[in-house]
Amino acid sequence: MEEVENTSKRKAPELDSEDSSAAAVMNGHQSLPGSAAKRQNLARSCIHEVAAPNGYDLSKDEAVHGTLSNPVFNGDMAKTYPFQLDPFQTVSIACLERNESVLVSAHTSAGKTAIAEYAIAMSFRDKQRVIYTSPLKALSNQKYRELSQEFSDVGLMTGDVTLQPNATCLVMTTEILRGMLYRGSEVIKEVGWVIFDEIHYMKDRERGVVWEESIVFLPPAIKMVFLSATMSNATEFAEWICNLHKQPCHVVYTDFRPTPLQHYVFPIGGSGLYLVVDENGQFREDNFLKLQDTFAKQPSQLDGKKSGGPKASGRIAKGGNASGTSDIYRIVKMIMERKFQPVIIFSFSRRECEHHAMSMSKLDFNTEEEKDSIEQVFRSAIFCLSEEDRGLPAIELMLPLLKRGIAVHHSGLLPIIKELVELLFQEGLVKALFATETFAMGLNMPAKTVVFTSVKKWDGDSNRFIGSGEYIQMSGRAGRRGKDERGICVIMIDEQMEMSVIKDMVLGKPAPLISTFRLSYYTILNLLSRAEGQFTAEHVIRNSFHQFQYEKALPEVVQKITRLENEASLLGSSGENDLAEYHKLGLDISELEKKIMSEMIRPERALLYLVPGRLVKVRDGSTDWGWGVVVNVVKKPPASSSLPPALSASRNNNYIVDTLLHCSSSLSESGLRSKPCPPRPGEKGEMHVVPVPLPLVCGLSSIRISIPSDLRPPEARQNILFAVQELGKRYPQGLPKLNPITDMGIEEPELVDLVHKLEDLEQKLCSHPLHKSDQSEQQLSWYQRKAELNHEIQQLKSKMRDSQLQKFRDELKNRSRVLKILGHIDADGVLQLKGHAACLIDTGDELLVTELMFNGTCLI
């Protein structure tokens, strides 16, 4: 068996102290000598750490098992492999043979499944039962098929299907395991190991609590195997397990990728692929600059003739239509011509998946023999359906796609269709698969190439760039171990991106695992159904990963408060009352101006005044652009949006004001300014046409200046800059603005009242003693900084006062009151019939479903 090379390097993680033993005890457990040390294999970067409880018995035969900080195994293997194990696999198996829990953090397709299989083989050898949990039914089904080929006695429990529930190895979803723990299943008493696949799913806002509750309720005698994609706080997670179950938990981490990846970027509407990260993980800055040039050379989508130079827009046409369909067609066709299939094309909405797949109607990737095989498998799969169900559009439309080697996979498909697609993809009969990101959640279906149709996704709150962890998970599907020399990732982008953004996404560290623990009615009802009742509810809260992270962060909070208080004390307090009054007047005026401007820039009012030459003030969040000059106003064409209708329907957002703004002329670190930004203090800068969304206009001046018809010459734009600067000198108190009442003729009583209030406040501000003081700006800046410090100090102190445990107690009390009103529990907190029924509803809204059942609205 291959041994991991040991180095003399021994250091406690995340500690600055020279003596690591000074930090040996943390959060109720002890890191034994060397247990927090990192052992690194220089070739494949295998790192091992361990957290162990105080007084842990170290009585193991070192000749066979090594030590806690340096585990090895020299005994008879429970399972042998036809290949040489990687270092991280060797160390993980040694930890398992010590009968101790282990968290394995590695890239997709690195070989984590081999460790899970070894834990199962150990259970068969030791006559124990083992549970394998996964976050998805599809993944559970796949693991059941794979493990059934490897082991003789395997069962499946997913809620939809139950096969051999008395088997030695049970594959199930995590929700099923939680239900078994709540109900005190006899099976748990026979379990020696529980394997949690895709444990990083615990940070999911909706379902993450399921993992925490399952781990909390597992008996301490059961050992656990956690399989995870790379995460940055694996040690913290191991410390929680150690603190919770009073047992060691090892961490084995590797960033080794068996099949190296090449990352290309394709500019939508452009041509060619640009290698930005090579197979050695090196960022190719020269290619990135060439990529940026393709955007700069494209004419502005708004008004090419009036573009203020190559840096004006940062956006290019999307080639064909707004969804970029023709570009995807070209990429898929190129991939097939170069024999880079199979390919997975990731989109972030079901509709886009289906639309892109249907746009491949002219492409056919399968031979006649393969088409016959597909049709035969398809007919066999749907044979179990009724005649009526076989005629459903979702089924009828899939066969023509499948026969051409194209398929769609997302959560909206019928389960039988998803399983069919997965089977055909594994057999190599599907060459191009259009899928959502859920396909990357653990399904062992690698491809040679992965394509991202967008780098932004709607996460329920905002339309944001995908994180490094998400990118690692999906891009990890590229490259088949033992088949491909390298995997290929293609990223489609439709706008200029900062170099730091693409670097963070492709090469950045994954986000830490942050607990999303929350109380739900399902949790409370099931906790009350147990004998311990209310005590058990607090037990779960107190032992959650959420509470552990909160308590661990408290010492850092105390240090930060002390640092902020010291900084605030240095700012002094003389004249603070006058400053507070003056500052409040400024805030009140700013708030009123925002309200008035929101009414003034409504398209039906503002478009009449947003004519070429009008001076407008622009602010983008904290970035103040100052005054610019209107060049043109255009209405954006309707385009498919990933935003919900309620958030994408604002009429103001449909208009773009092409505005000449004073921009920085200096180059960024990359050698090219990819995004316009205001000039730094003292910088001369230059004028460029910048597309400004209408809501970012925060001021309309009554002044208009003449502008030339051709703004391409730098001299023409520079003359406008001089004119704007001259107007600033002529009006030192600020340029005159359009009055919404007298100039724009708005007569709404609410707006008139706001304007009068604004005039009164401006008069008070002008008459304030500090307004004419030479040091007013400096004093105000000092006061604002001190106010910010005091506000942050109060927030941190409030965080310390408000115990998370107490918050959950209050929430528990309020939710229990609701349950009493609805009749799920009585006045003494004892479960009633409705409560028992709700306990059995593992998915969906348990309260709603129960109410519908008991009201006779629906029958289940």
From TrEMBL:
It is found in: Nucleus. Residues 1-14 have a biased composition (Basic and acidic residues). It comes from the Eukaryota. Belongs to the DExH box helicase family. SKI2 subfamily. This is Superkiller viralicidic activity 2-like protein 2. InterPro entries: Beta-barrel_MTR4, DEAD/DEAH_box_helicase_dom, EF_Hand_1_Ca_BS, Helicase_ATP-bd, Helicase_C-like, MTR4-like_stalk, P-loop_NTPase, RNA-DNA_Helicase. Residues 93-249 form the Helicase ATP-binding domain. SUPFAM superfamilies: P-loop containing nucleoside triphosphate hydrolases. GO terms for cellular component: nucleus. Keywords: ATP-binding, Helicase, Hydrolase, Nucleotide-binding, Nucleus. The keyword Transmembrane helix does not apply. It holds the Pfam family MTR4-like_stalk. Residues 327-528 form the Helicase C-terminal domain. The keyword Hydrolase applies. One of its GO terms (molecular function) is ATP binding. GO terms for biological process: maturation of 5.8S rRNA; RNA catabolic process. Residues 1-22 are annotated as: Disordered.
